[in-house]
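Hi C.,

You asked whether I'd gotten around to modeling the 133-residue construct. I have! Everything is below, sequence then structure, no commentary in between.
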Amino acid sequence: MRKRRHNHPGQGELFSDKPRVLRRARLPHAPTEAAIEQVTDNARQMWLEFGYLTGERIARLSSKLTSADIDLEMMKQHPEIKTHEKRAMGGVIRRLQSGKIIEATPDFLPDPRDHCHSNPIRVWRSLIYAGAA
């Protein structure tokens, strides 16, 4: 008679009285420095620079902003400047943050862009806002 193989953890324990320990899985889209660096490297340089300048201009004119604000303004001003790697907006945001132009807030808003299905996006605080003129 063959010896029975041991089950892998969690396998065959569906009706067991033992409590199952669920580990918090890391989301595949969780931003990491390496992932942001990779998508930034793959984006068009002109788009990245335009995104940075647009973000800086919005930060001068508004006390708070989101990545969607930058993206929508870019499409409004120059729809011909595109990149195949839209996730590179994370690189634009990181550059604005490291340049002391914006800082993270604990707030999130629903994304106004239709293709984003109201996913929550971070609200950033401008560090260079000139105030009401």
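If it helps when you're writing up: Strands lie at 64-65, 102-110, 120-126.

Thanks,
B.
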